Amino acid sequence: MSRDEKAKAKAEQAKGKAKEALGRMVGNERRTAEGRIDQAKGDARQAKEKAKDVLKD
């Protein structure tokens, strides 16, 4: 996995976790859902890069 893409995936996952936690803390369901979406995007990006690595080898 390229370092740049791996970093983007991790950053997106962390952003999502923070957003979700903030949403729960203030009781904002929309922000909580947005956080989950951001985490899912990060997970998808990471899975895509891992699949690319497997296919390379």
Automatic annotation (TrEMBL):
InterPro entries: CsbD, YjbJ_sf. It holds the Pfam family CsbD. Residues 5-57 form the CsbD-like domain. It comes from the Bacteria. Residues 1-57 are annotated as: Disordered. This is CsbD family protein. Belongs to the UPF0337 (CsbD) family.
